[in-house]
Amino acid sequence: MSRTRSKWWTLPPKPDAEAVAALAKQMDRPMAELLALRGFRNLDEVRDWIQGTDPGEVNPFDMAGMPEAAERLALARAQGELVFLFGDYDVDGTTAVSVGTLALKAGGWRTEAYIPDRYREGYGLSKAGIDRAIELGAKVLITLDCGVKAFDEIDYAVSLGLDVIVADHHQPEERLPNALAVHDPLRSDCRFGHTYLSGCGVGFMLWLSAYDAAGLDSAPLDAHHDLLALSIAADMVPMVGLNRRWLMQGIELINTQPRPALQALIGERRGPVSARDLSFSVAPKINAAGRMDHGLRAVQLLTATDMGPIEQFSQDLHDLNTTRRSTERRMVDEALEMAESVSDDLALVLYHPDWHKGIVGLIAQRVAERFYRPVVAFTEHEGVLSGSARSAPGLDLYAALDDASAHLIQFGGHKAAAGMTCKPENLDDFRVALNAAVDRRWPESMRQPQIAVDVVLRVDEVTPRLLQLQDRLEPFGVGNPAPVWGVRGVELAYTKKVGAEGEHLQVELFDPFRQRSLRGIHFQWGDDPIPEGLVDAAFQLSWNEYRGERTVQARLLDLQPTSGQAYL
Ligand SMILES: [Mn+2]
């Protein structure tokens, strides 16, 4: 394998000494350092943060445009008008439409759910959707997880007599669409204060307000915190503040009284469901519906109460997801093999006529991760090559593509990712020009893989108590990453290849001075040589349960010969 295994460690600046001292009175030094690095000055601040923001303290009417929207929805209820819910086809959009459907129906509204077809209609509010709303006689149209930039479509809807309410969380432009109300916490004039919500979360504020305006008790809406949690885990919004509390409440609900649809999607499992399970196991199944079938199926599943269809739906989604994954895996494997053969290049340009257009982005990403280099993956579509590119840390991909753009038909994107089209006969010239541009623009010092280690500690400082404290900071994710710990200059007392094909490496890290050891595992170690002599290791910590016994386990992210830096 030509990839570089060992990573360059980046360490944060020294944390504020006063904060570390204050925190260290109540906990061990490594945790005190970690918390100080994350901006806490004392234990009270940590406790507050752990609690998250109480939704009861939040006033949804502070959100710009809310009073008008709530009044309009109360009127729709009083007059028995049909409310049309239009959402995006991903997890955030489909959970937003599902919660809206459940909440409004239970409150006495008439609703119709609509999710656009990913391939025929594409992203965002569609003319087809608006026409459908009119055909059904809807009077109010709500866009969920989309709409804040749908100027023309909203004008069209308004011209047909619809009252449009936008509930979105994407970055708005300076001007807003011509809707009755536009809810978006990123609006510069929105004084709501909780800036980063999921689309489902913005919708939730609207349902609470509508209940309020209609004189209904909104307490039953808390039953939908599970779907809200799913949207937060899936949509990469920071898991802090209000989102953190919703996430914790939702996960609690899922673990105590799961709705049948989620139960079916989660399936049989040991132990409680975590935010990670929602992101990496439940969300992909729901997304599979939008990618391989139709997003409306996800809404039908999440809003169903009848077990028969639920079992059928969830089985179908499971099958769709399995098909999608095996297709993806095959294409990624092909790409990795291809990348191996051109791995002398600084920028890897790959092409296969059979790759799916919807998967080239994922292919580029996987190859970029493995080879730690910028990657462009092309497929062919109607005689033109259509590609997706992923950058490497420290490289402005957009600028490099711009340098090579004479050989492209068009391109667009940003520093980290881009898309482009190219004539087949220009592919070789593009590859040469891109490599030259990357060589000019990618600083040599950035060309080695890096890992951000939070705190360097000693083996004897890795204790069950440290991990118990770390557990209090869960759930980890966007805005609250799992801590990365590092040890330096330790012995590898024991190594063993494990897994079906010996692909993982089990290790024991041993501190010869203090005679203490730590068990760990490096997943997907593969055939790389095992370092000799003293080593440095970076890892995340988790519990390993074996025959009823819980021990601390290190999940290694990096293992390499020691950099020689002295012991702590
Ligand atoms: Mn979203």
Give a brief outline of the structure.
With 568 residues, this protein is of the alpha/beta class. The chain has helices at 17-24, 29-37, 43-51, 66-79, 91-106, 127-135, 151-159, 199-213, 225-234, 242-256, 260-266, 275-292, 295-303, 307-341, 360-371, 397-403, 427-441, 464-472; strands at residues 8-10, 82-87, 110-114, 140-144, 163-167, 181-183, 348-351, 375-381, 384-390, 410-413, 417-422, 450-452, 455-456, 485-498, 504-511, 516-522, 535-546, 549-561. It has three domains: 8-13 and 451-561, OB fold (Dihydrolipoamide Acetyltransferase, E2P) (Beta Barrel); 55-315, inorganic pyrophosphatase (n-terminal core), CATH 3.90.1640.30; 347-441, Diaminopimelate Epimerase, Chain A, domain 1.
Describe this structure in words.
It is built from 18 helices and 18 strands. With 568 residues, the protein is of the alpha/beta class. It folds into three domains: 8-13 and 451-561, Beta Barrel (OB fold (Dihydrolipoamide Acetyltransferase, E2P)), CATH 2.40.50.460; 55-315, inorganic pyrophosphatase (n-terminal core); 347-441, Roll (Diaminopimelate Epimerase, Chain A, domain 1). Strands 3-2-4-5-6 form a five-stranded parallel beta sheet, with helices on both faces. Strands 7-8-9-11-10 form a five-stranded mixed beta sheet, sandwiched between helices. Strands 14-15-16-18-17 form a five-stranded mixed beta barrel. Helix 15 links the parallel strand 7 and strand 8. The radius of gyration is 26 Å and the shape is globular. The structure holds manganese (II) ion. Manganese (II) ion binds at residues 92, 145, 169, 198-199, 235. Manganese (II) ion binds next to loops.
